[in-house]
Amino acid sequence: MKFLKNQFIFLVFIIISNTIVSQQNSQADLKKKRSQIQNEIKQINELLFSNNKKKSVAFSDIENLNIKIKRKEELVKLVNQQINILTTEIDDNSFSLDSLTQSLENSKESYKNIIVKSYKTKSGKSRLMFLLSSETFFQAYKRVQYMKQYANFRKKQSINISILIEQIANLNKKLNAQLEDKQDLIIENREIQKSLEKEKKESNSLVFQLRNKEKRYKREIEDKEKLTAQIDKEIERLIKEAIAKSRSTSSSNAFALTPEAKELEKNFILNKGKLPWPVVRGVIIQKFGMQSHPVVKTAKIKSNGIIIATSAGQKVRTVFDGEVLSVLKFKGSNPTVLVRHGNFITAYKNLSKVYVKKGEKVFSSQDIGEVFTNKSSGKSTVQFSVFEKTSPVNPVFWLLKK
């Protein structure tokens, strides 16, 4: 009966151990994501809040604050998930500790009975008489085997007790560490939430001060969106024109590729998720796709790429080998460079300087220009896009994760 009980405890312990391993993997993932967001918040502070020369209320101030608020909300959510997983781990480990302690008590009791029985028959004479009293040689052989098994079982019980004692000590140590980690995370979350509430109040106060100008800002956003749509339309036209030119006569929506260009495209695809960032230092402040404006919620913005905030004077670099398809200079906007990698095109918008020209071969991480810095807001940003033929795809999936 005790044997079955011990087996049940062992099986429960194995199941809990497997669950804990899974939770630890989740915990490691959350910890990594948490570290990434903390790094992003640090960069946001450095890149968007380092210039405090302007004292007047600016629309960009609210944008910057809302970018940071959103990241901090994500951070709070991640820390809460970590706390929840840690709580589950602590509960599971506490249960495992109780199971191990019970198993240890059972093993000690079993070992005690073995010792008592062994003591009662400890004399060599008793063991010898046990063998000599055998009626046949086969029975004597069986008794010798039994004595060996008994001795091995006794040894195993002793080893098992030592292992259980060590496991309990390690689990106690782990539990104490987990409890400390949980307490640290709770304190950290309180501090984040405290600063988050402060920044939300500041943002709301700025919004209140600018409430009379919301219509004007909405018009500005709409005008900016129109200009962006015009540039995107021009990029599409340039790509279609280049495709048509490459094919001469046949109509197709894909480039006619040489063997060299096919190999380049293949390598570009193989490097998905591994491409270097177009700037050495930066943080994403606008995502890909249709979204609400971070301040004027009634305004919608569509982005064919991602906007990366960086420091003034930063060089913009290519993410992969290719050929400059075009250097686009559109009225009312800053230059854009298009680089072709087979049937894929990368776009680098909002440059102040351009170092390359159309038809030039470029290499991965080569400087092709310099980021533009807005004098009124102090922001230095570059918009990066990836197109498969004429269709925009999410660039985040192509860049190396920081």
Largest sheet, in brief, is:
11 strands, antiparallel
User: What is the CA–CA distance across the termini?
Assistant: 56 Å
- Evaluate the radius of gyration: 34 Å
Q: Work out the count of structural domains.
A: 2
Helix coverage percent: 55-70%
Strand-pairing-aware structural class? alpha+beta
Order of helices and strands: HHHHHHEEEEEEEEEEEEE
Characterise this structure.
With 402 residues, this protein is α+β, with helices and mostly antiparallel strands. The protein folds into two domains: 2-209, no CATH class; 212-397, Glucose Permease (Domain IIA), CATH 2.70.70. The protein contains six helices and 13 strands. The longest helix has 73 residues, at 137-209. The relative contact order is 0.10.
Output the keywords.
Glucose Permease (Domain IIA); 6 helices; alpha+beta; 402 residues; 2 domains; two-stranded antiparallel ribbon; eleven-stranded antiparallel β-sheet
Brief overview, please?
The chain has 402 residues and is α+β, with helices and mostly antiparallel strands. The chain contains 6 helices and 13 strands. It has helices at 2-48, 59-120, 124-132, 137-209, 214-247, 259-270; strands at 283-286, 289-292, 300-303, 305-310, 315-317, 322-328, 336-341, 344-349, 351-354, 361-362, 367-373, 380-388, 391-393.
List the helices and strands and how they pair.
Elements: H1 2-48, H2 59-120, H3 124-132, H4 137-209, H5 214-247, H6 259-270, E1 283-286, E2 289-292, E3 300-303, E4 305-310, E5 315-317, E6 322-328, E7 336-341, E8 344-349, E9 351-354, E10 361-362, E11 367-373, E12 380-388, E13 391-393
Antiparallel strand pairs: 1-4, 2-3, 4-12, 5-11, 6-7, 6-10, 7-8, 8-12, 9-11, 11-12, 12-13
